[in-house]
Amino acid sequence: MAAFRDMEELCQGLLSLLSANHAAAQQRRLLGRYGQMMERLLEAQDGAEQQLREILNTEKDVAQSLLDAKEQACQGVAELQQIEAKLQKASEEDTHLKANLIQGSLTACFTQLTRELEDLKEIEADLEKREKEVDEDTTVTIPAAMYVAQLYHRISKIEWDYECEPGMIKGIHRGPSVAQPIHLDSSQLSQKFISDYLWSLVDTEW
């Protein structure tokens, strides 16, 4: 603003010089004022250019910061999309894995149950076979054993006491004339003695 005021004063001075034809001293004074005004204008121009450069640099820095922020935002979006894609893929793989595990577990369970059922069928068949064999053996053995026991009873005439103490041999020998009790201790007597004694009770007369 001071430079414009000086220019205005200079113009007025020149007008007064032209109109009044003042002295050379006043002309030198005006020329000096003109020189000062030009220096101020140059300084103002330099200051304005410096401020303009600073403003341009600031705008450049701000623009670069905006570009960097935009680039970082784009990178963040890309990374977020990659993470979402990985999560989606992991979720699909997890679902597929769970399905495979469930299917595998069901298959293994079904196979195990089938194997156990087959084992049970084999056990049942084996039990039926053994039961049949036992029935056949019982049908054949029991009558034979009963026949041998009855035959031995008729020959020896001995009625055994099956409720006696363990290790004791008790019974009654019903001979032709009298009944004779039998009381033997197998822990004190040998098997040969017991056998000979029992056979000695058998009547040799038929």
From TrEMBL:
Keywords: Cell cycle, Cell division, Centromere, Chromosome, Coiled coil, Kinetochore, Mitosis, Nucleus. Residues 38-140 form a coiled coil. GO terms for biological process: cell division; chromosome segregation. GO terms for cellular component: Ndc80 complex; nucleus. GO terms for molecular function: microtubule binding. Pfam families: Spc24 (PF08286). InterPro entries: Ndc80_Spc24. It is found in: Nucleus; Chromosome, Centromere, Kinetochore. Acts as a component of the essential kinetochore-associated NDC80 complex, which is required for chromosome segregation and spindle checkpoint activity. Required for kinetochore integrity and the organization of stable microtubule binding sites in the outer plate of the kinetochore. The NDC80 complex synergistically enhances the affinity of the SKA1 complex for microtubules and may allow the NDC80 complex to track depolymerizing microtubules. Belongs to the SPC24 family. Component of the NDC80 complex, which consists of NDC80/HEC1, CDCA1, SPBC24 and SPBC25. The NDC80 complex is formed by two subcomplexes composed of NDC80/HEC1-CDCA1 and SPBC24-SPBC25. Each subcomplex is formed by parallel interactions through the coiled-coil domains of individual subunits. Formation of a tetrameric complex is mediated by interactions between the C-terminal regions of both subunits of the NDC80/HEC1-CDCA1 subcomplex and the N-terminal regions of both subunits of the SPBC24-SPBC25 complex. This is Kinetochore protein Spc24. It comes from Molossus molossus (Pallas' mastiff bat).
